[in-house]
Specification:
This protein is an alpha/beta fold. It has helices spanning 19-26, 63-67, 77-93, 116-128, 147-156, 171-184, 201-210, 256-274, 297-304, 314-317, 324-335, and strands at residues 4-13, 16-17, 40-41, 54-55, 105-111, 162-166, 190-197, 221-228, 242-251, 281-286, 309-312, 344-351, 356-364. Strand 1 (4-13) and strand 2 (16-17) form a beta hairpin. Helix 1 (19-26) crosses helix 11 (324-335), helix 3 packs across helix 5 (147-156) and helix 8 (256-274) crosses helix 9. The two termini are 16 Å apart.
């Protein structure tokens, strides 16, 4: 990909729904030195026991209040978060979906495995129901990994490319790279691109038992970005929030030092592809949660040759797994909503437990003006 422009975006996080909620949570904070937030009380959300009384969930989220009753009765939480977030992103971009444009708007959504709860609940039904295993067939669609992306397309009448990428920690960067390739090859003019992860007992316990969240609580989030080319038609949105100049992913088998070398290689590749001097990178947004954790920041600083400011969005919004990268980008854009931090060059990084790594360079525009050059 040669770079894509963000003409509109939105995020759902423990801060609330939309750009303003996220910007409000960040207002007045020094993002490079935020303390770890415990989240909010989540005990009332589910009858099942949870590993901790607090988490980073949208405790008062009500999909019917946002979208109405029609068509939402079958949504699981992952689908509800994704659809509402896309609605907000389309509104922020000022994009009208009609018979002319709908064929040129696609969706690419990153995830870990779809809705863990929906899949688990359906599997359980096949074991506990009386023979001949009378499972409610209405439960099945939500077990399909691409359910959320499909429902987004159905809700808004989008007929372009529709893709779900199961990439874990790398899901968002993989989604951005995929979207960029689709746009560059002319298959779509706009790709609603992002990632989603729900907070449920299943994910909370999975994070707790695998030790993937040592300093931050489990969370949920959705982040969606309207991506297009700088030469896109006017209907794709005239305002620019930022431009993603380049994305690179890699793999270091077994993790450890091999993953560190792979991440440094990703950094070098995105700098070369974007034509950016390493010294121009002022901020790195990593998916780390602990100040002492340097598994991403260390290789990045080594490749850049200096130590840029580090922002760890997980410390504010929890372990959001596949959606962590989308949350990090949303934090960067929300912090710059009033010209605070967006202008300049930043880098997003991600690293999975299996050794998968990735990096992207983002050019922010503090004025969010109309020139998308």
């Amino acid at each position: 990909m040669t770079g894509v422009v963000i003409t509109g975006w939105s995020a759902l996080s423990s801060a609330g729904v939309g750009v303003d909620a996220l910007a409000g949570r960040l207002a007045g904070r020094e993002l490079s030195a935020v303390p770890v937030s415990p989240g909010v009380g989540v005990g009332h959300l589910y009858e099942e026991p949870l590993p901790a009384p607090d988490g980073h969930a949208l405790a008062d989220f009500d999909v019917r209040a946002r979208l109405g009753r029609k068509g939402t009765g079958s949504y699981d939480r992952t689908t509800a978060l994704a659809v509402v977030c896309c609605q907000e992103a389309l509104r922020e971009a000022g994009m009208t979906v009609d018979d002319v444009t709908r064929k040129r708007i696609g969706v690419v959504l990153g995830t870990s495995l779809g809705s863990f709860k929906s899949t688990s609940d359906y599997s359980r039904e096949t074991l506990v129901q009386d023979k001949p295993y009378l499972v409610n067939p209405m439960l099945f669609p939500n077990t399909v990994m691409n359910c959320a992306a499909g429902q987004v397309a159905i809700r808004f009448g989008l007929r372009g490319v529709n893709v779900t990428i199961a990439g874990g920690a790398l899901a968002f960067l993989n989604a951005v790279r995929y979207a960029g390739n689709v746009i560059e090859r002319g298959y779509a003019d706009v790709m609603l691109t992002g990632a989603v992860e729900e907070y449920t007992p299943h994910r909370a316990w999975a994070s707790h038992l695998t030790g993937s969240t040592t300093t931050v609580a489990a969370g949920e989030a959705a982040g969606m970005f309207a991506l297009t080319s700088p030469q896109a038609p006017v209907w794709a949105g005239s305002r620019r929030s930022a431009r993603i100049l380049a994305v690179s992913t890699g793999y270091g088998p077994g993790g450890g030092e091999q993953a560190e070398r792979a991440l440094s290689g990703c950094v070098n590749r995105v700098l070369r592809r974007a034509g950016v001097d390493p010294d121009a990178i002022s901020t790195v947004l990593t998916c780390e949660g602990d100040e002492a954790d340097r598994r991403e920041y260390g290789p990045v600083a080594y490749a850049l040759g200096h130590r840029p400011r580090r922002i760890m969005a997980k410390r504010l919004f929890g372990e959001c797994d596949a959606a962590s990268g989308a949350v990090a980008l949303a934090v960067l854009l929300a912090a710059g909503k009033d010209g605070v931090a967006a202008e300049g060059l930043s880098m997003l990084t991600a690293r999975g437990a299996d050794g998968a790594v990735g990096a992207a360079i983002v050019k922010g525009y503090a004025d969010a003006g109309t020139d998308r050059g």
